[in-house]
């Protein structure tokens, strides 16, 4: 009997490489099988060998260590509330900021266009949808991405001149970051809705919410956000799509000062009620906290750590510390998740928003293990949430020394996405996110999980090799 025949007379246990369907077929026939998620090296991954030269590798290691030291040393604090046009650098009355890498009106996705229409009506630069579209496409409006102005915005990320914004500071390095207030879920501007209900809410936020919060912070002083993030990660939040504990912690910080302001009891009660009813209120603080923590990494030569991931509903973009402020883009992926009643994948826009700055900093999808309940919102199982987090350790440089996850033995969150590891392992960062409708004016229709395109990382590697003349 040949060795092959002897083999097939035994109980076989199979390790499957390649197509996962082979593993499934074997399991259907009750053959024990383990699937290994392996792919052949890509052309781009061959360029990694140029980074392994001893002299270059030591420079990269030193740079990456410096980057992580800066990121872990960051101390984001909330210091105030201001008007976007007066505090965000480079804003004018006809400047509109948006999420993601730079894009022109003609290439914008429908939810971004919808948010811009709403922004123009809110600013009274247009009185209706028709006028807003005409102005938006006229060339009179200056469009730029939030990241170019130390700002981040969820979903469409639209910021206009009159909008109130949070002002944050990285106490360690002195840089600032900004974000608008969170409107809540459903039919809101950031998901591309612009009905009168949306505009009325924005006006209330400007005229009623912002003055109270501004006065409260003047009484309170700064709020230590690093402590809040560390706390909410041990209370079931991950800082992107689950913010219940975070919002409650912020409420506790601000409520006593709100009560001390000189506004009427009814006015103060309306503000407290709005915060209390909006479980996502902290998201628009979590995001700039991550932004101002990551920005000090941008000037580190030879560093392969990401400083930003962002999407505008058309293109996904990443930035790598060692290549500065340059964007590497590819078409956005579709989100896989759960839809609100009456909606399906056919109604969905592609991936959208600056909110994956949270994942870039090591929370959000990277910390889903600490927030198993989030799967009720984005889909999957509690085990999936743990697997998402543990897989991210494969592509990150370090574990956070302040942000700990209780149910995986208090490991620090996976921190510092390393371009090299993403390309080498073919493991992409995991992002949990809301889903916007692909028709302007509708709003949010669900939530789910998505990944960046691999092309962004491959192009970043090519640019890195070219910049440092690696041969």
Automatic annotation (TrEMBL):
Designated name of the protein: Membrane protein FdrA
One Pfam family hit: AllG
